[in-house]
């Protein structure tokens, strides 16, 4: 990992928020809302990996099969991407990790990095029951042109499966098919969920929050309040 971080010398200390939860728990949605309200960047490893696939570069070609089948990408690749991203100046005041860490090796690497840079983190565990996860994942649609996300159950487009903003036919993300959803949930159960115990053992700050039924805007307000309470100690 890097020796130096361009941490700003002014303003409050940098804070790392780690959004943690199974596929479909709303990490991406919450990360975007938190980014708007806290003014710190969202770092989504899923988005970064998809960008490489779209660009068709060497990394993209190497990871595409694994991602499309719902299996985790190799730790070294993801760790390197995150390391590079955290060194960018916009992370100096803090950042929101979405989808990272997902394995013990990633968590160890992140903890070492945070300790080395003197940055405190708060892990926010989004709790959602299994049936809601399945509904959210199977109903998810995206506009391939502007990227707007919809859900056929909770946030349907006004007209049958076309984007409200530009009328483009919505698509299902490649890894949102039923078998791949199962694979992603299995990867979460076996490789990622055990990290909660790891965070507890290491006495990292952990906030567990029910995220199954509330509208996203309500939930983000609750999370912001909890972050504020936590920062005040
Ligand atoms: P979700 O949380 O709904 O599974 P993401 O966009 O976070 O969606 O991840 C999509 C896929 O990207 C994962 O199934 C996995 O293949 C890959 N991926 C994302 N983040 C990581 C990570 N930290 N480590 C390994 N693979 C990752």
3D architecture notes:
- The chain is built from nine helices and seven strands, in the order E-H-E-H-H-H-E-H-E-H-E-E-H-H-E-H.
- Helix 1 (27-38) crosses helix 9 and helix 2 packs across helix 3 (58-68).
- A five-stranded parallel β-sheet has the order 2-3-1-4-7, sandwiched between helices. Strands 5-6 form a two-stranded antiparallel sheet.
- The protein has helices at residues 27-38, 45-55, 58-68, 75-86, 104-116, 130-139, 178-192, 195-201, 216-232; strands at residues 15-20, 42-44, 94-98, 120-127, 140-142, 149-151, 205-210.
- The protein is globular.
- With 233 residues, it is α/β, with parallel strands linked by helices.
- The chain is 46% helix and 15% strand.
- The protein binds adenosine-5'-diphosphate.
- Adenosine-5'-diphosphate is lined by residues 23, 45-46, 49, 66-67, 70-73, 78, 99-100, 102, 106, 175, 184.
Secondary structure layout plus pairing:
Blueprint lengths: L14 E6 L6 H12 L3 E3 H11 L2 H11 L6 H12 L7 E5 L5 H13 L3 E8 L2 H10 E3 L6 E3 L26 H15 L2 H7 L3 E6 L5 H17 L1
Parallel strand pairs: 1-3, 1-4, 2-3, 4-7
Antiparallel strand pairs: 5-6
The structure holds adenosine-5'-diphosphate.
């Amino acid at each position: 990992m890097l020796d130096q971080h361009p941490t700003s010398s002014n303003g409050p200390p940098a804070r790392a928020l780690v959004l943690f939860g199974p596929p479909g728990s709303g990490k991406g949605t919450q990360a975007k809302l938190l980014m708007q309200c806290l003014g710190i960047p969202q770092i989504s490893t899923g988005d970064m990996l998809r960008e490489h696939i779209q660009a068709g570069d060497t990394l993209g070609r190497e990871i595409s099969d694994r991602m499309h089948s719902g299996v985790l990408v190799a730790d070294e690749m993801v760790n390197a991407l995150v390391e590079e991203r955290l060194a960018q100046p916009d992370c100096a005041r803090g950042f929101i990790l979405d989808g990272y860490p997902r394995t013990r090796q990633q968590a160890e690497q992140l903890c070492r990095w945070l300790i080395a840079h003197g940055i405190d983190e708060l892990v926010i565990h989004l709790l959602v029951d299994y049936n809601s996860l399945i509904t959210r994942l199977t109903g998810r649609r995206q506009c391939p042109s502007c990227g707007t996300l919809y859900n056929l159950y909770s946030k349907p487009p006004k007209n049958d499966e076309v984007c409200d903003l530009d009328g483009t036919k919505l698509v299902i993300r490649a890894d949102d098919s039923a078998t791949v959803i199962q694979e992603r949930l299995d990867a979460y159960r076996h490789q990622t969920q055990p990290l909660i115990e790891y965070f507890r053992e290491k006495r990292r700050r952990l906030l567990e929050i029910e995220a199954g039924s509330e509208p996203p805007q309500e939930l983000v307000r609750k999370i912001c309040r909890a972050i504020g309470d936590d920062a005040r100690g």
